[in-house]
Amino acid sequence: DKASAPDKSAGVIAVHILRETIRWGVNHPDHNRAQLEIWLWAERNDQALAARLYDKFIESCKDLLRDASSPLSEDRLETVTRVIVALVDGFGMQLGTHGDEKIIMRDVETAVAMLDAYLG
């Protein structure tokens, strides 16, 4: 389902991006780990590639958030997107390291509450 339907708020979209990205990692642990390994390899061996990979994720999140029923200012869009990406990065690393999906999903719900509070 597409989170960027016209009647969706930025908060609903941000929460959808976070939950669904982490759920994907929980459901595909080998792929999650491979993505981390590819990015780390690129960071060590081809920083331009690493930056392009990262920028692609950031821009795809921004594109979804730009479709919100009440769009965010560009500054707020930048901040919210980078916070979502930082959360995804951290949860992805924790999932790959500890693999405890119950704890990860509990912590995702804490992050969801924080995004909800910030975006109102």
Give your account of this protein's structure.
There is one protein chain. The chain is an all-alpha fold and 120 residues long. The protein contains 5 helices and no strands. The chain has helices spanning 10-27, 29-45, 47-66, 74-98, 101-119. The radius of gyration is 15 Å and the shape is flat. The two termini are 23 Å apart. The mean pLDDT is 91.
Characteristics:
single chain; 120 residues; mainly alpha; 82% helix; flat
Number of contiguous helices: 5
Parts with pLDDT < 50 across at least 5 consecutive residues:
none
Query: What is the molecular shape?
Result: flat
Order of helices and strands: HHHHH
- Gyration radius, in Å: 15 Å
- Percent of residues in helices comes to over 70%
Question: Strand tally, please?
Answer: 0
Distance between the termini: 23 Å
Average predicted local confidence, pLDDT: 91
Percentage beta strand:
under 5%
